[in-house]
Specification:
349 residues, alpha/beta, Purple Acid Phosphatase, chain A, domain 2, 2 domains, six-stranded mixed β-sheet, 10 helices, globular
Length: 349
């Protein structure tokens, strides 16, 4: 680890754990050591290197050459223009009008004890975009308390891709008591890997190319999660599924639906993703102006199928760059797994 520390510059603006001076630095070093033992030197080095070199840039890396989210003065300019056009207040109201969506999904090989097993799916919270967002999210979570068996979070806790995560982590800590356990999560392209210990102290289990087994009445399903496939390209499905039996029912969590082909060919049954915001700013009828993901347009919002894989891409709960939405409501989603006997498979593309 010492060699890696010397090669690697410290990421600018990365949040440090509470404390001051030498004690804080020692704790940070110990947490980095534990992360390297957990995810491996190459994975951690890739994550930290890209954070240092690229996360705050305004261009390059990722699907889009220009990264609007990293140019603050453009956020201000866009907000001024929308206010001048009389559209900003409407977009802000839309962003805070958080819908509770319900999605029944059928699988012929779902183990019988998991029929009607319910998953709460949260994604793209971007909690520091608006001061009222955490309050609205708590309200919606309280409305569905006790209606789900497990919660999953598919990345992007904060709005920016660089600087401190403290505001978003503070809001998440306030929200966490309103989320039923267990909670599993993957990292998004706005999340730094160093936040992992803080999140796990809240009782949120990060799946960093890892899997977890969920047992019920003598049967099991598996929940696997990959690191961000969009910006960091740190997803490793082979590693994430290495402890899952070939004939087991398996769900994959990924920040972006861009892993849909890999997931289908690796035998996953269900893919839960986010990242796209459904476009966030869409034309009337919900047609997105930008899709921001390397996948077919039909995969960027709501339910979809690809070959034997069933998928769902959340439009997210928050908003990126600007706290506005148009023709694309935010959501939290309740998925109900249902067992059926007839296979319903799409031939794909």
């Amino acid at each position: 680890m010492k060699t890696l520390e010397k090669r690697r510059p410290a990421p600018g603006g990365v949040p440090s754990p509470p404390g001051t001076g030498r004690a804080r630095m020692t704790r940070r070093s110990e947490e980095i050591d534990r992360l390297e033992r957990r995810v491996g030197r190459v994975h951690l080095g890739q994550r930290l290197g890209i954070q240092t070199d690229h996360a705050a840039r305004s261009h390059g890396v990722g699907l889009n050459f220009f990264h609007f989210e990293n140019v603050r003065f453009l956020h201000t300019l866009a907000a001024v223009l929308l206010k001048g056009a009389g559209l900003f207040a409407r977009g802000e109201r839309n962003m805070l009008d958080l819908a509770i969506r319900r999605n029944d999904v059928f699988f012929p090989r779902l183990p019988e004890p998991f029929d009607r097993f319910r998953i709460l799916h949260l994604s793209d919270l971007h909690l520091d975009t608006h001061p009222d967002l955490a309050r609205v999210l708590i309200d919606r979570l309280d409305r569905i308390a006790g209606e789900y068996d497990v919660c999953v979070l598919t990345g992007d806790i904060r709005s920016s891709t660089h600087g401190s995560s403290e505001d978003a982590i503070r809001d998440l800590a306030a929200i966490r008591p309103h989320i039923g356990s267990p909670v599993y999560a993957v990292l998004g392209n706005h999340d730094f890997i160093e936040t992992t210990p803080r999140l796990e102290e809240m009782g949120i289990s990060l799946l960093l190319n890892e899997s977890a087994e969920i047992r019920k009445d003598g049967e099991s399903i598996f929940l696997a999660g990959v690191d961000d496939p969009h910006f960091y390209v740190a997803d490793n499905i082979e590693k994430a599924s290495s402890r899952i039996d070939a004939d087991a029912f398996a769900i994959l969590l990924a920040h972006s639906p861009e892993v849909y082909r890999k997931a289908a060919y690796c035998g996953f049954d269900f893919l839960l993703a986010g990242h796209t915001h459904g476009g966030q700013i869409c034309l009337p009828g919900g047609a997105p102006i930008l899709k921001n993901a390397r996948c077919p347009r039909r995969l960027i919002a709501g339910p979809w199928r690809y070959r034997g894989l069933v998928g769902y891409t959340s439009t997210g709960s928050g908003a990126s760059c600007l706290g506005v939405r148009y023709n694309c409501p935010p959501e939290i989603t309740l998925h109900s797994l249902r067992r059926n006997r007839a296979a319903d498979r799409s031939p794909g593309e």
